[in-house]
Amino acid sequence: MTIKFSSLPYLGFGLGLRTIHFEDFIATSPEVDWLEIISENFLLESARPLYYLDQIMERYKVVPHGVSLSIGSSDSLNMDYLKRLKNLVKKLDTPWFSDHLCWGSSGGTNLHNLMPLPYTSEVAKYVAERVRIVQDFVEKPFILENVSSYLEFETSTMTEWDFLTEIVETADCGILLDVNNVFVSSQNHHFDPMEYMRNVPKDRVVQYHIAGHDDKGKYILDTHDHEIQQDVWDLYRKTIPLFDQVSLMLERDDHIPPLPDLLSELAFAKSIYDDVMKPHGI
Amino acid sequence: MVSNPSPPVFLVQIQVDITASIVQKNLNATIHIKPSKTLTPAERLDIYADDYWARILDALIEDFPILQAYLGEDVLYKLAEEYLQSYRSQHFSLFYLGNRFPYFLRNRYHQKNKKTVLETVDYEWARAWCFFAPQLPLLDPSLFSKDDLMKIVLQFQPHVQLVSYKKQFRLIYRHDSKVQEKMIPRVFKDLLQQLQNGTSLDLAFDHISTALCTKEIEALFSFCIQYGLLCQKSEGEIS
């Protein structure tokens, strides 16, 4: 499957749909351009999430974002998971689907976490091959998200952005650029986040994530349980001009505030975008 | 059939070692990890181990609030940790974490209050399972003649669970996308258990308690049909 990622639709400014807000979205239909769901919450037969999803899909464009594909795992791809994911993608009629550049299971044990990979060409080639399999199987454009990380491997021979670039170019997939994750990793591994941003292939960035984190003193933890910090807004502001129009999604996974608070934060993200892009005539 | 590419050998080793270190809480995998300016390899690995244990323990215990209130947080977390050491999560969904917890407690919990603990864990897991279990096509009795209806092999929907809890026999089921329960007279127990395992009505009625009258049976079946609790057992499942 050959895809022109730059021609994928621009969805605007979206929110992560979380259980706590299901009924708010149905009752009040707030103005949000699109919604992102955690794929795994809708892959089981459980009726309740699907009951809400059916109603929400009638009013919003919904895009699935996975946390358990484990694309970098040395375990075989989980075909049961992929079949379920393909059905969900089909049901949503989504322009793309996404998951993380990481591994989460090994030898059958699921760590339910986004574990970083060693950055080498050999691993990049392996991951790219699996991305191709997934994208061909699901038959929709796939975009890979950079993760926040707290450790680096002795075996790594390249930067994270070179590793990401090698994978997406070899596999021919898109990028979900998580601005907060770039910031968190830059602080934990002591690199310049703008160097990351400048070296990501421009024509493959389809979506941004933006979220909050927690400063633990000796390191920064990607918690998604805070308002977005000024450092991340600043990085977002500097990132915008480097890319074309990119759909943005605001994530909050813990200490989730009332929906109006998230909508205000999303409006702030949009105001930054408008402010930066006005001089560019967009 | 998808042909999986072979992973680099060093990648397999890193992932096996890190998984073992996180689950078994040891530091063996630190040989793969660089120190940072502020953290040692062990401290970096600990961030992931702490996150793993917090996530899976909280996810498991969330399904057992009554048990937590009964045993207390410290006791339940200790038992949950022992359980998750023995039965690692193997499913992509955290929903499945508790599926062997009742079995684990049956074999490993030996305190005086064991009976209450087992009854509670069974009850809470039945409700958790009921929430996400599959729904098979509903049985439509109008499609069958009365004779055929007696002979087809019926079973409960996978989300239907039968449990005894607080001296009551309960039918736990999902309706209108919510978990619900109905107290059932104990005389129905055998009949319902046969239906849970899959049986034809004529065989079930052969073994039915004489204490049941036709009206009671009819009421129960119309309830099961009305709430979509029955389905036809597929050919492949009939043993």
SSE layout and pairing:
The complex is a heterodimer of chains A (282) and B (239).
Chain A lengths: L12 E4 L5 H7 L5 E5 L8 H11 L3 E5 L13 H14 L4 E4 L2 E4 L2 E7 L5 H18 L3 E4 L14 H12 L2 E5 H11 L3 H7 L5 E6 L3 E2 L4 E2 L8 H10 L7 E4 L8 H19 L5
Parallel strand pairs in A: 1-2, 1-12, 2-3, 4-7, 7-8, 8-9, 9-12
Antiparallel strand pairs in A: 5-6, 10-11
Chain B lengths: L8 H16 L16 H22 L2 H7 L1 H14 L14 H8 L5 H19 L13 H6 L1 E4 L4 E5 L2 E8 L2 E6 L5 H9 L1 E2 H6 L7 H13 L3 E3 L7
Antiparallel strand pairs in B: 1-5, 1-6, 2-3, 3-4
Helix pairs in contact in B: 1-2, 2-4, 3-4, 3-6, 5-6
What is the structure about, briefly put?
With 282 residues, chain A is α/β, with parallel strands linked by helices. Chain A has helices spanning 22-28, 47-57, 79-92, 121-138, 160-171, 179-189, 193-199, 230-239, 259-277, and strands spanning 13-16, 34-38, 61-65, 97-100, 103-106, 109-115, 142-145, 174-178, 205-210, 214-215, 220-221, 247-250.
